[in-house]
């Protein structure tokens, strides 16, 4: 091979050496370009994600604001289109049977008297509220808890059976309550302990009706002769005591100290409220003068006699749901304001409805010497009512004159306005609850309370 051929061969080899290097540079350049493109793309992606997150936050805030505005508008218009009874129909269907299971006695006459009011079913508002509150709080944030009670524990005694000696023929002298049939098992969101709270609430309320009818010399209840008329005062009082006794046993078996304390104070509150009602007004003068204190006295009495049971049963339901302290307090507030509103409406219906519409004597409060909200509001602008209140409308013509003055005043309208304010407070207390049918049911219960006719 001559020198020229060797040089040509070397040039070819150099070109071959340069080709991979050039190719490598091309690949490197392309890679760097792609990397820069990826970085740009990733940058755009991060920017897009941030924008989406920001937008999502705005949308979430907008959604919350829209829901809040919608809820407010709905509340103002009274357009919560839901049937509370439908939500808790299963629990309500078995309520009377479950209560009667708690009341079985070996004495037939006591059985009859004890179940007289439970069989003549009334509004059943209180247990319905407990059921709704149980379901609504089941969705709330939970507080620490140790265990949930079983159906068997709820129906079992704590003390030895031979010590209790509870003569209940349905259990062959065994002090355990009969378990409900399978069809009466609690519905979704309602624990056995919460169902028992609903039953206890109705037992205490029914016992208070038996006792109140004796104190007030009532002649009818729920369209039938009142317990004191049907059985006499002694049996009516004893029947009420029996209901409270059975409620106490059921309460202890829930095995929750705060729940037991709540209902124990309810019983004391009922008695305290009755004593306040006997006095009628804070002013001991023979001719009392209107004052803010007189109205505050009435509101305190109303809480003790009516709102205490509703508010504390709501709190008990929330406690047994393991709800947070905030939710438990909100449940109590809802029950308190709803209870006050309920009694205010009850008091104004006494002035605006007939015996047939109410299912009990209309105008009974004045006949009993009681000064309720419509009359107290009227008293502020009609001082002459002070003398009538002082003698508890005992003179001939006092009742008629009092009704006439209330009719001429804005007492009924002011009472309705105050009831509306309390209903709004009850609904506002539910703002911390998550959205659910049960929550809407509680809202609807407040609206129904304001617009009820009996």
Question: What is the element layout, followed by pairings?
Answer:
Layout: H1 3-77, H2 84-87, H3 89-102, H4 108-114, H5 116-119, H6 125-138, H7 151-154, H8 161-164, H9 192-215, E1 220-221, E2 224-225, H10 227-231, H11 233-252, H12 257-279, H13 292-320, H14 325-352, H15 355-358, H16 364-367, H17 373-381, H18 385-390, H19 398-408, H20 411-428, H21 437-451
Antiparallel strand pairs: 1-2
Report what the structure shows.
With 454 residues, the chain is mainly alpha-helical. It folds into two domains: 15-77; 78-451, Farnesyl Diphosphate Synthase (Orthogonal Bundle), CATH 1.10.600.10. 71% of the residues lie in helices and 1% in strands. It has helices at 3-77, 84-87, 89-102, 108-114, 116-119, 125-138, 151-154, 161-164, 192-215, 227-231, 233-252, 257-279, 292-320, 325-352, 355-358, 364-367, 373-381, 385-390, 398-408, 411-428, 437-451, and strands spanning 220-221, 224-225. The chain has a two-stranded antiparallel sheet. Strand 1 and strand 2 form a beta hairpin. 39% of the residues are buried. Residues 6-21, 37-42, 45-78, 167-175 and 179-184 have low confidence and may be disordered. One of its GO terms (molecular function) is kinase activity. Keywords: Isoprene biosynthesis, Kinase, Magnesium, Metal-binding, Transferase. Belongs to the FPP/GGPP synthase family. This is Histidine kinase 3.
């Amino acid at each position: 091979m001559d020198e020229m051929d060797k040089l040509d061969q070397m040039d070819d080899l150099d070109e071959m050496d340069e080709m991979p290097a050039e190719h490598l540079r091309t690949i490197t350049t392309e890679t760097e370009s792609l990397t820069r493109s990826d970085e740009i793309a990733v940058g755009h992606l991060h920017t897009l994600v941030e924008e989406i997150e920001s937008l999502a936050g705005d949308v979430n805030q907008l959604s919350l604001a829209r829901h809040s505005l919608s809820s407010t508008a709905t509340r103002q218009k009274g357009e919560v289109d839901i049937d509370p009874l439908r939500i808790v129909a299963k629990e309500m269907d078995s309520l009377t049977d479950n209560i009667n299971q708690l009341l079985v006695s070996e004495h037939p006459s006591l059985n009859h008297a004890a179940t007289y009011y439970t069989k003549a079913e009334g509004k059943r508002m209180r247990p319905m509220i407990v059921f709704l509150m149980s379901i609504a709080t089941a969705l709330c944030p939970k507080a620490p808890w140790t265990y949930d009670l079983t159906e068997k524990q709820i129906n079992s005694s704590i003390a030895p059976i031979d010590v209790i000696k509870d003569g209940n023929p349905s259990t062959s002298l065994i002090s355990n309550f009969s378990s409900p049939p399978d069809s009466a098992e609690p519905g979704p969101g309602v624990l056995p302990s919460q169902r028992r709270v609903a039953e206890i609430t109705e037992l205490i309320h029914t016992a208070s009706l038996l006792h109140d009818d004796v104190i007030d010399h009532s002649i009818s209840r729920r369209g039938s002769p009142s317990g004191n008329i049907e059985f006499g005062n002694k049996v009516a009082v004893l029947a009420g005591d029996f209901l409270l006794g059975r409620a106490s046993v059921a309460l202890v078996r829930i095995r929750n100290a705060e729940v037991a304390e709540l209902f124990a104070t309810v019983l004391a509150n009922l008695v305290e409220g009755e004593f306040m009602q006997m006095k009628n007004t804070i002013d001991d003068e023979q001719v009392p003068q209107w004052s803010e204190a007189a109205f505050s006295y009435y509101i305190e009495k109303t809480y003790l006699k009516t709102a205490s049971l509703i508010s504390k049963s709501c709190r008990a339901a929330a406690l047994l749901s393991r709800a947070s302290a905030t939710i438990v307090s909100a449940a109590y507030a809802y029950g308190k304001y709803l209870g006050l509103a309920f009694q205010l409406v009850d008091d104004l219906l006494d002035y605006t409805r007939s015996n047939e519409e109410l299912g009990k004597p209309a105008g009974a409060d004045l006949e009993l010497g009681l000064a309720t909200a419509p009359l107290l509001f009227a008293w502020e602008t009609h001082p002459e009512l002070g003398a009538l209140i002082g003698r508890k409308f005992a003179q001939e013509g006092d009742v008629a004159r009092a009704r006439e003055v209330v009719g001429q005043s804005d007492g009924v309208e002011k009472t309705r306005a105050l009831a509306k304010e309390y209903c709004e407070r009850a609904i506002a207390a539910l703002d911390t609850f998550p959205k659910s049918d049960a929550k809407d049911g509680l809202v609807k219960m407040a609206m129904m309370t304001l617009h009820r006719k009996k």
